[in-house]
Design a protein that fits this description.
The protein is an alpha/beta fold. The protein binds D-xylulose. D-xylulose (XUL) binds at residues 14-15, 98-100, 138, 171, 219, 279-281, 303, 305, 336.
Length: 551
């Protein structure tokens, strides 16, 4: 039994799973005490999700059952409190959640959350509080008309991006709310509070409606980044009486209440502080230690994201990326790719490979893929915007395993480089996190494409670790103690020593040429560029990865 230490808990409610990371901080020790994950499909099969998502015939519609997240939280707490830890030392809890997803609660919720009964399962008490059974999530791309309407009402893309940090995006919460209001106006009227997944989960812990913080609120197309307040023109362009239904926005380190009696009586937990939850990407920024530098981080998860801490809010001039609030009080740039781990897995499964086999084929195939390019848009893509799913091949044979394995990874890394140039024109060092960051063959392609050193991290979930570190930071702030971010992350969010993967100069030279060819293929496939055949031929004739291929 560990005694006399301060424990901080970080939870990450992601697309496919709920992860917990417990950290211990004393004068002499700083370490991760425990990490646990509950996988939605496997551990809560009664919700019938696939990769955490409710099956839908319409590929543009992507929702998840919020009750599944509620039940997962209860299960996780039950599991964690059987550990041999001195839970009386738990000082603070915070969390991270998949961004953009929204949860709709009726007017009974405020009271019911305050009176949660420890003898009744949480899920049974929340069931009657939803005014919408399913939550639209970040993978949804069904709101193009609403994006257009909001943009037109605001006065154009540039105005919206200048205020909110992003153009209108299908998955962002504002367009999703507008669609709900247009299609289900009575249920919209019945809705008393619209939470993001983050503030919903914090509300369950604190036993009362929790506020939002700027990191996650900036993924809605509704918040003014400079003032960190709701932006009235965007609210008016989205849906009526919206301000009354949204949580207030508070600083990221705000203590939003103590763990509700439900958690104290049911699991013997103390009245620990509940700190505002944030989005998974803002939390990963902290979990990879990017609290001041502009090192680029890449998270290889259900979505692949590239992000960096920035001091100013400079929107992406190409319109593809976002500026979010950072949990430090500054900003972060971010680009999100929908075809991340599920695309890699799809190629792996198609060829009956395990991950070792996938890596072996990747390492053994020629960089540049003999001048063949695969656009792995198996799902609709966010960056660049591709609404109709369908992979596009420029010379990659369907039955050639190495060409497809290399094709998917090279395309992902080339897209990551191409679309992150606005936030990092030059990159020397990159931090890789998320499930696939364990795979050094994939990281070698990343290093070669970016021409940068790539480092790995120890804790599998940098988002959950970031949430635990945010809990620790906020607890210090609440106690009026020194809370320097560089000190908070020290020893927790450092890259693994000896994990450096250096780029190879000759392979980087191939990718520098290939980047323009890739950009031309992307533009052509989206119907906004000329036929890239001349560039592909020229690239192949220059070697396109060691040998010449003419098809
Ligand atoms: C970011 C985004 C995704 C989700 C996934 O804008 O949509 O990274 O946060 O969890």
């Amino acid at each position: 039994m560990l005694t006399g230490v301060a424990l901080h808990l970080g939870l990450d409610s992601s697309t496919q799973s709920l992860t917990a990371v417990i950290i211990e901080v004393t004068a002499s020790a700083r370490r991760v005490v425990h990490q646990a994950t509950l996988v939605f499909d496997a551990d809560l099969p009664q919700y019938g999700t696939t990769n955490g998502v409710t099956p839908s015939v319409d590929a543009s519609v992507r929702t998840a059952p919020p009750l599944m997240w509620v039940e997962a939280l209860d299960r996780m707490m039950a599991r964690l409190t059987t550990l041999d830890l001195d839970w009386s030392q738990l000082a603070a809890v915070s969390g991270s959640a998949q961004q953009h997803g929204s949860v709709y609660l009726n007017a009974r919720a405020a009271d019911a959350l305050r009176r949660l009964d420890p003898k009744v399962d949480l899920v049974d008490q929340v069931r009657g509080l939803l005014s919408r059974a399913e939550s639209p999530i970040w993978m949804d791309s069904s709101t193009t008309p609403q994006c257009e309407e909001i943009t037109a009402a605001i006065g154009g893309d540039a105005v919206l991006a200048r205020h909110t940090g992003s153009h209108a995006f299908e998955r962002f919460t504002g367009p999703q709310i507008r669609k709900f209001w247009q299609q289900h106006s009575e249920r919209y009227a019945e809705t008393d509070r619209i939470h993001l997944v983050s503030s919903f989960m914090a509300s369950l812990l604190a036993g009362g409606h929790a506020p939002l913080e700027p990191g996650d609120a900036s993924g809605m197309n509704l918040m003014d980044l400079a003032s960190r307040r709701w932006w009235k023109p965007a609210l008016d362009a989205t849906a009526p009486k919206l301000l009354d239904k949204l949580p207030p926005i508070v600083a990221s380190w705000t203590d939003v209440g103590s763990l509700a009696a439900y958690w104290q009586q049911r699991y013997g937990l103390p009245a620990a502080r509940v700190i505002a939850w944030s989005g998974d990407n803002p939390c990963s920024l902290i979990g990879t230690g990017l609290v001041s530098s502009n090192t680029l981080a890449i998270s290889l998860g259900t979505s692949d994201t590239v992000f960096a801490h920035t001091a100013e809010a400079r929107p992406d001039p190409t319109g593809a990326g976002h500026v979010f609030g950072a949990p430090t009080g500054d900003y972060m740039g971010l680009v999100c790719f929908q075809n991340g781990s599920l695309a890699r897995e799809r190629v792996r499964r198609t060829f009956g490979l395990d991950w070792e086999g996938f890596s072996t084929l990747l390492s053994a195939s020629p960089p540049g893929n003999l001048g063949r390019i695969l656009l792995p848009w198996f799902e609709p893509e966010i960056t660049p915007p591709v609404l109709r799913a369908g992979a596009v091949s420029f010379g990659v044979p369907v039955d050639d395993a190495p060409a497809n394995v290399r094709g998917v990874v090279e395309a992902q890394m080339l897209a990551a480089r191409l679309h992150s140039k606005w936030m990092a024109p030059r990159v020397d060092t990159m931090y890789a996190t998320g499930g696939a960051a364990i795979n050094r063959a994939i990281l070698q392609v990343m290093a070669d494409v970016f021409g940068a050193d790539v480092y790995q991290f120890d804790v599998g979930s940098s988002a959950a670790l970031g949430a635990a570190l945010r809990a620790y930071h906020a607890d210090l702030v609440a106690r009026e103690r020194d809370a320097e971010w560089s000190d908070i992350v020290r020893g927790f969010a450092d890259p693994l020593s000896g994990s450096r993967i250096a780029p190879d100069a000759s392979r980087h030279a191939i990718y520098r040429q290939m980047l323009d060819v890739y950009a031309a293929c992307e533009a052509f496939a989206r119907g906004v560029g000329a036929d890239p055949s001349p560039q592909l031929r020229a690239f192949r004739s220059r070697g396109g990865g060691r040998s010449v291929v003419i098809d």
